[in-house]
Design a protein that fits this description.
By secondary structure, this protein is mainly α. It contains nine helices and no strands. α4 runs parallel beside α7. The longest helix is centred in the last third of the chain and has 23 residues. It starts with 12 loop residues before the first helix and ends in a 10-residue tail after the last helix.
């Protein structure tokens, strides 16, 4: 029987909603207050990976859009187990090759009590099924299908399995969370956020 080794993860929904706030350059994820970036740092705007000009900061140039994304993220994770939230965000970030979000979410998961064993097994969860619960496996499969939707849509069996282990409300929130992390990944990649520069 699969065992969730992380029942001690007690991070509240309100706390975990700050996870993606690090995408707002020079902003405290905990308070939302603007902070002046340290001199000479590139955290504020994101560096072009090709070495070109710095890229825009979405939070500063389109604050209403950014606040809407924060609201979507907050609403999506409502009522979900914090351990499940991080697993979904980590797996999508793997698939999207988003180093910034992967670094951020694995560190958040560790701080919330996630084990190193499980973090290492996320990319190969099918071969390490005993590390994850039925619900986590169903969510990971759905995360992969939705993230890679252009490769063949969301298969009926993947959706049906998720619908078996989550009630309708939970499934709606899992799906919404998958959509939000895919959006955050694309924001980070498009604006060239650098892994390890989250101000938290």
């Amino acid at each position: 029987m699969a065992t969730n080794t992380n029942t001690n993860m007690t991070t509240s929904v309100s706390t975990t909603t700050s996870v993606n706030a690090g995408l707002r350059a020079g902003t405290s994820a905990n308070t939302g207050a603007e902070e002046a970036p340290a001199a000479g740092t590139a955290v504020g705007t994101g560096a072009d990976p090709a070495g070109g000009s710095p890229r825009l900061d979405l939070a500063k140039t389109a604050p209403k859009v950014f606040r809407a994304l924060i609201g979507f993220d907050t609403a999506a994770r409502e009522g979900l187990d914090p351990a499940l939230v991080e697993l979904i965000q980590i797996r999508a970030s793997h698939l999207n090759h988003c180093a910034y979000c992967l670094h951020l979410h694995t560190n958040d998961a560790r701080r919330a009590g996630e084990s190193e064993d499980r973090l290492h097994m996320v990319p190969v969860w099918r071969e390490a099924r005993h590390f994850f619960t039925d619900r986590e496996r169903a969510a990971l499969a759905l995360t992969e299908a939705v993230t890679l939707v252009a490769d063949g849509g969301v298969p009926d069996d993947v959706y049906a399995r998720a619908a078996e282990v989550f009630d309708d409300r939970e499934l709606a929130h899992v799906l919404a969370l998958i959509l939000t992390i895919n959006t955050w990944n694309r924001v980070a990649l498009a604006t060239a956020k650098v892994a390890g520069t989250d101000p938290r």
